[in-house]
Specification:
Blueprint (H helix, E strand, L loop, with lengths): L10 E5 L5 H9 L4 E2 L17 H6 L9 E4 L12 H8 L4 E6 L2 H16 L7 H7 L2 H5 L2 H11 L5 E5 H4 L5 H9 L20 E3 L2 H12 L3 H8 L1 H11 E3 L5 H5 L4 H29 L15
Helix pairs in contact: 7-14
Length: about 300
């Protein structure tokens, strides 16, 4: 699939889910020269291509000189959509692609908890069962695979690897670096509300509210509603219809895994940590950064 290049994004936050991508998107979306679109995650190049290019194009403001389109769809690095990055590259080969990484196993657990307790999409009663039934959680943490795919699909200088701890560190260094890569000055006023865009796992106060939210998100009216209300007001609405919930800890979630699953997760950590370490060292040397210091050896497994 190749769509009109005029509709393609210049900035993409392609993953990894549950790694601070919403926080970073909120910071960047506050920049006057960045158009975050009316939907943060259109997922067009993964699972929404059937909606058509007109739908995707209409999510953004009309094209004007100096206005950069941002697509923050983390599903572009989900194993269920192996063609998403190549579809994106076919349309936007010069896009700047940001890939945020977090310790692989806690990221996978957080992803499971989010789907299980907030979206209610996951029916597995524990993490071990979820790993057995669905390759999403481990697959989205397979940083070795996605780094290979990203660099095979986009020029090295167009891919920015960002460790989670750098995104959440005080200040806006990562957002500023992304702006510099796009040829933009830093945002004159960092988004003071950006911290509210960190997606904590909550539950809806009533199943009917979750159903209504799901129907709205899937409808063609959602972009218009989001545009009219704005992301901050939508967050406030979300706080009214949801409540905090008690969640299993990472250690408790991992206790449901079989010995074979633990070994597979340990290998996932080893491969992922090594791949990210190498990528960050090369990137730090090339760009004069020190982000490798934010990437430490994982210690979630016994």
């Amino acid at each position: 699939m190749v769509i009109d290049a005029g509709a393609g994004p210049e900035l993409v936050i392609a993953g990894a889910a549950r790694s601070g991508t919403s926080f970073l998107a909120a910071q960047l979306g506050a920049h006057p020269n960045i158009d975050p679109g009316s939907v943060k995650e259109p997922n067009f190049f993964s699972r929404a291509e059937d909606r058509g290019v007109e739908w995707y194009d209409a999510l953004f403001s009309p094209r004007e000189r100096g206005l950069i389109r941002m697509d923050a769809s983390v599903s572009y690095t989900y194993p269920q959509y192996p063609q998403a990055l190549s579809r994106l590259a076919a349309t936007a080969p010069d896009a700047t692609v940001v890939y945020v990484v977090r310790d692989p196993v806690p990221r996978a657990v957080s992803h499971y908890l989010y789907y299980r307790y907030y979206f209610k999409r996951e029916t597995a009663i524990d993490f071990g069962e979820a790993l057995q039934r669905n390759d999403l959680y481990a697959g989205a943490s397979d940083y070795h695979r996605w780094l290979v795919d990203l660099r095979a699909t986009f020029p090295r200088e167009r891919v920015l690897i960002v460790p989670f701890r750098a995104v959440t560190a005080p200040g806006a260094e990562v957002a500023g670096r992304v702006c510099a890569a796009l040829g933009l000055p830093p945002s004159p006023e960092p988004d003071s509300d950006a911290a509210a865009h960190q997606n904590q796992v909550v539950t809806f106060r009533h199943p009917a509210l979750r159903l209504a939210s799901r129907k709205l998100r899937r409808s063609r009216l959602y972009p218009l509603v989001r545009e009219r209300l704005g992301a901050s007001r939508l967050r406030r609405v979300r706080s009214l219809v949801t409540k905090d919930t008690s969640l299993p800890t990472t250690a408790e979630a991992l206790s449901s895994c079989t010995p074979d699953q633990v070994e597979q997760l340990r290998e996932l950590e080893r491969r992922g940590h090594a791949a990210v370490s190498e990528a960050l060292r090369e990137q730090d040397l090339r760009l004069g950064l020190s982000w490798a210091e934010h990437w430490s050896a994982p210690n979630s497994l016994p």
